[in-house]
Specification:
The structure is a homodimer of 193-residue chains. The first copy, chain A, contains 9 helices and no strands. With 193 residues, chain A is mostly helical. In chain A, α1 crosses α2, α4 crosses α5 and α4 runs parallel beside α7. The longest helix of chain A is centred in the middle third of the chain and has 24 residues. The interface between A and B is medium-sized, with 35 and 35 residues. Chain B binds a DNA duplex (18 and 18 nucleotides) through α3.
Chain lengths: 193, 193
DNA sequence: GTCTATAGTGCGATAGAC
DNA sequence: GTCTATCGCACTATAGAC
């Protein structure tokens, strides 16, 4: 028999989310999380940089999905269309089966300012990656940054709606609807009478 | 003579920014900041919730400026135009004399992820306030959220440009240029060929 | 795997302003 | 007397150093 069970990181994540949900983020100590899966505090910090980080992984894969979708867009597509392609590619990460889990995780995050901070930093990182990729395609600043940030805004708004009570549409569908709404809003403000 | 000098919070802020700039945020202890202005650690935490917060105040006044500008927009203005009015009102907070100081402060923040997190939380708070105000004007979601978030994106991009080396335009001018660029980008993506 | 610095909190005491 | 700013001390947990 193995000296330690495999999947330490995954077990720590599961235990952390449970405890954060049950008694709140601040009321949960790292020692408790580690103990629950038979590990030590020290081991927790070997896997995750800090107590918050345990809720934010898989970000790399989401980022890669964005980049893949972006790369698949036609070379001459306008910036916002390129971003839309990236967003579409990300929809695979949010199948209907994941909706409940996403809602739980989001509830924990939304309830704690320090977790909100970390979430915003991660999303800002995604926006930075996207705008960087746009610049690599030849889109100049500030257009690249504006397009990337707008894309992330669509992503966030769509995600919030997707996990809302009673929402039935797929993440992809919600995202398309929000994207259309963004276009309408921008057109409404710029269209001459 | 008074037992304590007035303006404790202001003195703590000044000392904190100096030390953060000189030796870095993490390398500076709260005890050092407090000692430098003749106060104790405990008093620092009476004025600021945590070590980061000392760099983020006056946020309330900026928020109020946004709201005032927003309230001054005509009732039938489209959402993004209302947001533009709020942005314009905020320009008073960034006169040319403040450009250098803003750049220094931003350098400290940008150099530290934990400060970036706090900054993003504050900006998200502003966006939340704006979208709330739009909803109060009768703008439905998700348009209200999209307009508010887009406005903050413009604000952030403009601010970054305003403090960039060699930039001479006023904050108001930069912001207008970015706003126009956002309109062009949105139009470019939605306009049929 | 242990040891330690530091952030941050709770409660109480003190000293001045009014 | 009340109110408020400050300080002192004990304490926990995070996070990093050794």
């Amino acid at each position: 028999m193995a000296r330690w069970q495999p999947g330490a990181a995954e077990r720590l994540q599961a235990a952390a989310l449970e405890l954060y949900l049950a008694r709140g983020f601040e009321q949960t100590t790292v020692a408790e999380i580690a103990q629950r899966v038979g590990l030590t505090e020290r081991t927790f910090f070997r896997h995750f940089a800090d107590k918050r980080e345990v809720l934010f992984d898989g970000q790399d894969r989401l980022e890669q999905a964005f980049l893949d979708g972006l790369a698949a867009a036609p070379p001459d597509a306008p910036p916002l269309a390129v971003v839309a392609a990236a967003l579409t590619a990300s929809a695979d990460f949010f199948p209907d089966e994941r909706r409940r889990w996403s809602a739980h995780r989001q509830a924990v995050i939304s309830a704690n300012p320090s977790l909100r901070e970390r979430e915003l930093l991660k999303l800002a990182g995604l926006a930075g990656t996207l705008s960087e990729a746009l610049r690599a395609r030849g889109v100049p600043d500030p257009t690249a940054t504006l397009a990337a940030e707008s894309g992330l805004t669509v992503f966030r708004v769509a995600f919030t709606q997707w996990i809302a009570e009673g929402e039935r549409r797929s993440f992809a569908d919600v995202q398309l609807a929000v994207l259309a709404e963004l276009g309408a809003m921008a057109a409404g403000a710029t269209a001459p009478a």
